[in-house]
């Protein structure tokens, strides 16, 4: 309606007047995705943040994503509509716990998923996202032990994909993805037997999907484990009439936008991240008008954390 058009126009006007680029993660609400200049997964948005000419980055997502953007663009102003948008997965490990884990495993290379605080990244050798985790681990010499954190399911996926036995995995999980159960998969696959299946590696059900594939319930050719960005690429090419999507439900908006031939259904319609959903029109307008919340990172944390993120970016993909 006109009201909607007017706040969106106001967001774009304020962004232009402040030389700001608005980035939105695939899990943001549809209205926020639609008003943003760029929508994508954490890696794609990190790259855009690193390369933008804009002097302000407004990150519609969660706190660690805005922190990553700040690490890559230290001279830019980086804003997040609310600093309270955390991440239950990032909260499963802090810098003290990581230091203790490292001291028990001297000589190991530390790979930190981007879903971590800057203080944790500062203790890591290299970062990864769900779209490059396998490549990042493969970049580490085969005989060097690896500590992978904090997601146990992404860690299990990397162990399977690389076939390495010298990877220790932190037992963290994301409450949203862990909530998508093997029963959800069984029920949905039985109800939609010809559907393609897209699974985010943070899902506990990712391992179940592979297992079911072995059982023949879920043909492996139709099951793909991928990041949110790769799901959009897969959707563009898709010809199936139905696809089941095992990740946060905000994802469905971009999938439906790029492909109207396929019906995209959630594996579990309750898989909603309350932190991602904190961003709304009002907070985005406040962010642009009042310059809050601004991300700052102490210099002694920023330098080593930036090194870990830049090593990841250098690997490509
Ligand atoms: P992506 O890197 O696939 O966008 O995932 C980010 C995330 O928070 C998953 O819960
Ligand atoms: Fe964190 Fe999970 Fe939300 Fe992603 S979906 S931001 S991992 S709590």
Structure in words:
- The chain folds into three domains: 2-86 and 276-296, Rossmann fold, CATH 3.40.50.10800; 90-174 and 303-315, NadA-like (Rossmann fold, 3-Layer(aba) Sandwich); 180-266, Rossmann fold, CATH 3.40.50.10800.
- It contains 15 helices and twelve strands.
- It has helices spanning 2-17, 30-35, 42-51, 63-72, 95-104, 118-121, 133-138, 152-162, 175-178, 182-191, 205-215, 228-237, 251-258, 281-290, 299-315; strands spanning 20-25, 38-40, 56-60, 77-79, 109-113, 126-128, 146-149, 167-169, 196-199, 223-225, 242-246, 263-266.
- The strands form three sheets. It has a four-stranded parallel beta sheet with strand order 2-1-3-4, with helices on both faces. The protein has a four-stranded parallel beta sheet with strand order 6-5-7-8. A four-stranded parallel beta sheet has the order 10-9-11-12, with helices on both faces.
- The mean pLDDT is 93.
- 1,3-dihydroxyacetonephosphate is lined by residues 26, 41-42, 115, 129-130, 174, 202, 227-228, 248.
């Amino acid at each position: 309606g006109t009201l909607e058009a007017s706040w969106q126009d106001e967001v774009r006007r304020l962004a232009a007047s402040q030389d700001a680029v608005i980035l939105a993660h695939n899990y943001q609400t549809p209205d926020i995705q639609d008003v943003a200049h760029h929508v994508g997964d954490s890696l794609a948005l990190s790259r855009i943040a690193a390369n933008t000419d804009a002097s302000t980055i407004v990150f519609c997502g969660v706190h660690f994503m805005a922190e990553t953007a700040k690490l890559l663009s230290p001279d830019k102003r980086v804003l997040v509509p609310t600093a309270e948008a955390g991440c239950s997965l990032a909260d499963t490990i802090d810098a003290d716990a990581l230091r203790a884990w490292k001291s028990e495993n001297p000589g190991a290379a530390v790979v930190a998923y981007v879903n971590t605080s800057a203080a944790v990244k500062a203790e890591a050798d290299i970062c990864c996202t769900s779209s490059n985790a396998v490549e990042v681990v493969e970049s580490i010499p085969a005989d060097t032990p690896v500590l992978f954190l904090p997601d146990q399911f992404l860690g299990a996926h990397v162990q399977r994909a690389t076939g390495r036995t010298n990877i220790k995995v932190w037992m963290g999980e994301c409450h949203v993805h862990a909530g998508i159960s093997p029963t959800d998969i069984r029920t949905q696959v039985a109800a939609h037997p010809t559907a393609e299946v897209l699974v985010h590696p943070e899902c506990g059900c990712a391992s179940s999907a592979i297992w079911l594939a072995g059982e023949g319930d879920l043909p492996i050719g139709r099951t793909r484990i991928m990041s949110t960005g790769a799901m959009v690429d897969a959707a563009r090419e898709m010809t199936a009439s139905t696809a089941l999507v095992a990740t946060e439900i905000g994802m469905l908006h971009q999938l439906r936008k790029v492909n109207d031939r396929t019906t995209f259904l959630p594996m579990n319609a309750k898989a909603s991240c309350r932190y991602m959903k904190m961003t709304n029109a009002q907070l985005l307008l406040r962010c642009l008008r009042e310059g809050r919340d601004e991300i700052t990172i102490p210099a002694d944390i920023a330098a080593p954390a930036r090194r870990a993120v830049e090593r990841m970016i250098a690997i490509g993909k």
